[in-house]
Input
Amino acid sequence: DHFNKGIYDIHIDLRHVPLLEHRPEKEMLGLEAHNVMATSITTLSAVSRVGDLVEVLRGCSHYGFPVVDSESDQFLGMLDRSTLMHVLCLGGEYGVFT
Output
């Protein structure tokens, strides 16, 4: 490891595995969450129409959506884009939405 990268590090790079280093780079030491997070957040209601969900997916490129209670605006959890797309595709495939 003193002369080149270790075999495990090479495999991690080849497989494009996201991995945090043990020590942050100097530029990252002063960063806080608000420096890198999106300012326009798209939330999903716990109860939504399929058409609304499709419009949200078409209208933005976010990878995750906070799910909130529509009455209290209380955070209920996160829904990632791939899961939402998978559920919508399966629902369409099995005729759930007709």
Remarks:
- The first helix runs from residue 7 to 14.
- The helical segments are 7-14, 33-36, 50-59, 81-93.
- The chain has a mean pLDDT of 89.
